[in-house]
């Protein structure tokens, strides 16, 4: 029948300015009227990093040791910050822009994509800082660094897929946002950020579950492997990331396509 | 089978609506939760789906000026929303040529925290304009809106009249091939109303198609050559404005005065029930590829 896919592509191209406007709005609206403005985007994650270092590096003194422990935490934490800040924001995005949805016909995925883009910009800035610090202090300037852009692209697409799914689902079922918020808390602790799975368990099954049962874990571990260890992630980890990205993006796209039809009516 | 919305499959400015059918699920408005989804079987209060359009066919040629009239709940606003591509059809087909601009709901899409100028940029972007295209029109839009220095203040500071002028200025200067306008002209003061009518007339003179939904019959007589009368989601009459409006007046006088208010689906349901007509199965006009 009608060339739906072709129409979609041309729609997206025709709405580049809308995408740009939404990103600008998202950036400004958040901290409008604040003195530090956009700097807050970096201050908050930095404070969080500092708090976790104080908690797990100084106060609690875990039974395992890693040199330059703040770098050890930060190089994996940047991944977690992206995931944990993007998913709730994406969940709210369609509701927040309901007025735009009721006004004109445009590809609805622009809205969650703009949210992901803003978060991705923060992530890239923060990751840049962490990468320079880690590589300089740890002396890990070596060829595995070339894998950093690959891992970054995979991570951003993975998050984009999750964001599409969550934004579409939350618009239909308002429990999804609170559920995501609730899951994020335990999810943080089972993600290997301030430890490595081998640090806290010798049981092969528990280790495998920590390493592979959580789709964010291979991303966090890979960023740390590249930046902190100066080594290449295992082929298994790379394959896992590719697979997770394909599944998240494909699934997210399908869910969103299915749920976006009636947004203007139901929001 | 879901309805189709195709842009640019017909000549610029033309509109083809074929067997357009659309129902609204009243419960959708309340916002579903997972609990309701899981317990759906026990959840049956009120009508499941209220038909708003029941097979509307409409052929509008480029440059025509068409008014849509009908009582509340007849499907006027739904028709405009379908033409604007905001509300998808359950079945049937919409084809529209060229760019469509819709003035449906005045406040919609405006952010109170942003200035008039910023809202103009967003408004243009929403309709698919590029930055350059919006900037080319920016001064015209600002001048038309008569906002003066208010254009750089956040919308919070605006009166409702200023919001109307801003909303109209954006849509009127998009140079769209199809203009869809719902009832909003009545909001501004007399002088601005006349200015809007003149602007619309200029747009039409340059070849744009106009579809206007209004209860203001005098406005319709001034603006539209053709009128379509909708009744219970169907086309009841379609022809020259004078002829259809007299039919419409007849319809209005023949029955109790319609309740002036919203087009809430519940009202539609009540009207449908009173008329004794249940929901009919949508006619499927699938065309071979």
Query: What is the number of E strands of chain B?
Result: 10
Roughly how much helix do the residues of chain A carry, as a percent range?
over 70%
Number of strand segments of chain A: 0
Note poorly predicted spans of chain A.
1-10
Described by the principal axes of the CA atoms, the overall outline of chain B is globular
For the record, the CATH architecture of the domain at 1-27 and 48-98 and 213-280 in chain B stands as 3-Layer(aba) Sandwich
- CA-based shape of chain A: globular
Mean pLDDT of chain B: 81
Order of helices and strands of chain A: HHHHHHHHHHHHH
Biggest sheet character of chain B:
6 strands, mixed
CATH structural fold name of the domain at 1-27 and 48-98 and 213-280 in chain B: Rossmann fold
**Beta-strand fraction estimate of chain A:** under 5%
**Helix segment count of chain A?**
13
Number of helices of chain B: 9
The rounded distance between the terminal residues' Cα atoms of chain A is 29 Å
How many domains, in number, for the residues of chain A? 1
Return the average pLDDT of chain A rounded to an integer: 88
The quaternary state of the protein chains shown equals heterodimer
Strand content of chain B: 15-25%
**Could you say which structural class the secondary elements and strand pairing of chain A correspond to?**
mainly alpha
In CATH, what is the homologous superfamily of the domain at 1-27 and 48-98 and 213-280 in chain B? P-loop containing nucleotide triphosphate hydrolases
């Amino acid at each position: 029948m009608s060339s739906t896919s072709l129409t979609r592509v041309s729609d997206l191209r025709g709405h580049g300015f809308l995408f740009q406007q939404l990103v600008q709005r998202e950036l400004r609206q958040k901290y409008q009227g604040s003195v530090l403005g956009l700097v807050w985007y970096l201050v908050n994650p930095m404070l969080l990093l500092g708090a976790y270092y104080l908690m797990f590096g100084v106060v609690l003194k875990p039974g395992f040791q890693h040199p330059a422990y703040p770098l050890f935490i930060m190089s994996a934490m940047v991944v977690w910050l992206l995931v944990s800040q993007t998913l709730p924001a994406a969940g709210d995005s369609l509701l927040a822009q309901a007025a735009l949805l009721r006004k004109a016909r445009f590809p609805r995925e622009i809205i969650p994509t703009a949210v992901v883009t803003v978060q991705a910009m923060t992530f890239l800035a923060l990751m840049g800082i962490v990468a320079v610090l880690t590589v300089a202090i740890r002396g890990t300037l070596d060829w595995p660094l070339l894998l950093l852009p690959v891992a970054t692209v995979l991570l951003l697409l993975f998050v984009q897929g999750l964001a599409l799914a969550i934004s579409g689902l939350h618009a239909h079922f308002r429990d999804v946002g609170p559920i995501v918020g609730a899951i994020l808390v335990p999810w943080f602790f089972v993600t290997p950020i301030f430890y490595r799975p081998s640090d806290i368990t010798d049981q092969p099954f528990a280790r495998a579950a920590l390493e592979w049962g959580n789709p964010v874990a291979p991303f966090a571990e890979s960023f740390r492997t590249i930046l902190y260890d100066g080594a290449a992630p295992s082929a298994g980890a790379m394959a896992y990331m590719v697979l997770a990205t394909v599944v998240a993006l494909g699934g997210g796209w399908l869910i969103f396509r299915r749920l976006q039809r009636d947004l203007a009516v139901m929001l | 089978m879901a309805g189709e919305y195709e842009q640019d499959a017909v000549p610029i400015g033309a509109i083809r609506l074929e067997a357009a059918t659309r129902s609204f699920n009243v419960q959708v408005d309340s916002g579903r939760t997972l609990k309701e989804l899981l317990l759906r079987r026990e959840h049956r209060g009120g009508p499941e789906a209220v038909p708003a359009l029941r097979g509307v066919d409409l052929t509008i040629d480029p440059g025509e000026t068409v008014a849509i009239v009908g009582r509340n709940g007849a499907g006027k606003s739904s028709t405009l929303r379908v033409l604007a591509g905001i509300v998808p059809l359950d079945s049937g087909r919409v084809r529209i040529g060229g760019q469509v601009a819709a003035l449906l709901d005045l406040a919609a899409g405006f952010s109170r925290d942003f200035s008039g100028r910023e809202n103009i940029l967003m408004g243009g972007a929403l309709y698919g304009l590029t930055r350059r295209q919006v900037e080319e029109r920016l001064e015209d839009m600002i001048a038309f809106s008569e906002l003066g220095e208010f254009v750089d203040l956040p919308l919070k500071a605006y009166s409702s009249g200023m919001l109307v002028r801003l909303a109209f200025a954006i849509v009127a200067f998009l140079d769209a091939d199809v203009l869809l306008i719902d009832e909003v002209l009545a909001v501004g003061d007399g002088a601005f109303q006349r200015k809007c009518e003149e602007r619309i007339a200029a747009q039409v003179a340059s070849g744009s198609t106009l579809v206007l939904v209004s209860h203001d019959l005098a406005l319709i007589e001034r603006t539209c050559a053709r009128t379509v009368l909708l009744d219970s989601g169907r086309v009841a009459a379609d022809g020259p404005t004078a002829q259809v409006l007299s039919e419409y007046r007849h319809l209005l006088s023949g029955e109790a005065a319609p309740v002036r208010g919203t087009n809430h689906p519940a009202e539609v349901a009540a009207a449908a029930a009173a008329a004794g007509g249940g929901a009919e199965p949508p006619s499927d006009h699938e065309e071979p590829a």
